[in-house]
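Input record (Table S2, row 538):
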Amino acid sequence: MISENKIYFYPIWLRIWHGINAMGILILIVTGINMQFSNPKFGLVNFELAVNLHNISGILVTINYLLFFFGNILTSNKRYYRLKRKGLFKRLQLQVDYYTSGMFKNQQPPFPLSEKRKFNPMQKVSYLTVMYLFVPGLVITGLALLFPETIIENVYSVSGIFLTAILHASLGFLVSIFLIIHLYVASIGKNPLNNFKSIINGYHDIHGH
Amino acid sequence: MLKSKIRASAFLFNRLAMQSSFLFLLILLFLGFSQKSQAQEKSLTPENDKCLKCHTHQTFTFQNTLTKKEDKRMSNPLYILDKNHFAAGVHAKFKCTDCHSSAYSTYPHNAELKLEPLSTCLDCHGGDEKYAAYQFEKIEKEFQKSVHFQKSGESFTCSKCHNQHYYQAKSRTSSVVGEIIGFSNEMCMTCHSNNSKFQLLSDTLKPALSQIHGWLPNQELHFKNVRCIECHTQVVDSLSVSHNILPKEKALKNCVECHSKNSMLVASLYKYKNLQSRSEGGKLNTIIANKSYVIGAYQNFWLNNFSIFIFIMALAGICIHVILRIIKK
Ligand code: HEM
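Output record (protoporphyrin IX containing FE complex):
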C-alpha cells in the first residue's frame, strides 16, 4: 500500500525521459568541455571520440526532447508548469528567503507540495527557462553546427559559424550550471536522497520537502 | 507666403541636388571601378593580343598559305589561356615572347618549337636579391625532399603547381584566409582530382581523395577551411610556406593539433604578417574576419574567466549552504 503522504509525481514516460536526458546531457557536458579545452598533451577523451560521442548524444537528447515536449502537451503534467505572472517576483523572493534563512530556522516551506503543486516557484522558473529556452537553443545551434552549410555565412561581417558556436558553448555552460544547482537543490529534503529515489520510482514523499 | 514657397522649393531643390549629386557620385564610383578593370586588362602588353587572339578563343582563324584561303579551326582547349587570370598574375607585365620563342609569332608554329626549353622559376629568381624574401633557393631545397620530387624527379617542376601564367603570391597578398586556402588547394587539385594530369607523372590511378580522407569528419568543410599542406607538410618556421610534402604515413591525423588553444594553424596558416596585422585586436578578429571557427582554437579570455567565476560562485554558494545545513540541523 502506498502511504497517504506519497504522491505519484513522475509518470513513467517522464522518468524515462529524465533518465535518458540526464545521461545524455552528462556526456554532452564532459565531451563538450573536452573539445572546448582540447590540448595535444592532455585530454579526458580522445578528440575524435569526443566529437563522435557529442554528436550521438546530441541527437539522442534532441529526439528525447520531443518526448518531453509532446508528453507535456498531451498529458496533465503541463499543469505544473503554468506560471502566473502576477506576484511572481514576490513568490520567488519568498522561496529564496526560505532557502537562505527560513529552512535553517525550521520554518515551513512557503509553497508546500501537493497534488496541485509539484514545483516551488523557483523550480518552476528554472525548469521553464532551461527546458523551453536553453535546451531548445542548444538543440538548434547544435544542429546548425552539425550541418554548417545551413548557417548564414556572415552577420555584419562576423562569421555565422563563429556566432553559432559561441552561443552554443555559452548555453551549454548555463545548462551545466543549472545541473549543478539542480542536483544540489534536489538533495534538499527530509533526507538528501529522497528526491533522487522519487525521480526513479515516481513517488514523492510530500513530507520530505 | 511667397517666401515660404520659395523656401520650400529651395529645400526641394537642395534635396534634389543632394540626391542627384549622390547619384552622380555613385556613377563616378561605378565608372571608376569599371575603368579600373579596363585598366587591368590593358596592362596586358599589347603585343600579347597577337597571341591571345587565338589563345583565348575556342576557335581561331589563320591564313592558309597553301590554299590561300582563310581557315577557321577549333582550338586545343588545353592551350586556351584565361586573360583575366594572366592579368592578375605576378608575371602580367610580361610579353608572351619573353618566355616563349619569338618564332611563335607565325602560325602554324614551327614544330621544332616544341623542343624549346622553358625557364624555371629558379632560372629567373634564383640568387636575385629582389626576391630574397621569397627564399626561392630554400624552397627548392625543401621541395627536393618532398615525395613528389623523390618519386617523379625533375619532371615534377615548380610549374606543375605554380602555373607561370597565372601564379599569384596569394598567401602574401590576400588577407582573406578562405581565398588563400582556395588558391592553395586548387594547386593540389589540378592533379589530385584530375586523372590525366596525375598520370603525366604516375602509372597508377589517382586515389580518390574523399575515400583516403574518410576518417576526417565534415570533410568538405575541412577542405574549404584548411590547406592540404597543413596536414601534408611539416611547418618550417623560417619559411612561410613549407614545400616538403611528406610521405602519407607522416601526414597529420591528430585532430588536436588544430583543435586546441595552441592550434598549429596559428603557426602556419595564420602566420603571414598581413593576417597578423589584420588581427591586431587579437585572434578574435582574424577568426571573425575570416569566417572560420575552429573548435577548441578559440578561447576568449573574458568569456573563459567569466564562466570560471560563475562556476566558482555556484560551488561556493552550495558549500556555504551545505555547511549551514549541517550546523543548523
Ligand atoms: C545526473 C543528472 C540528474 C539528476 C540526478 C536529476 C535529478 C532529478 C530529480 C531528483 C528530480 C526531481 C526533483 C524535484 O522534485 O525537484 C528531477 C526533476 C527534473 N529534472 Fe533532473 N536530474 C538530472 C539532470 C537533469 C537535466 C540535465 C535536466 C535538464 C536539462 C533536468 C531537468 C529536470 C526537470 C525539468 C525536472 C522536473 C520534471 C517534472 O516533474 O516535470 N534534470 N531531476
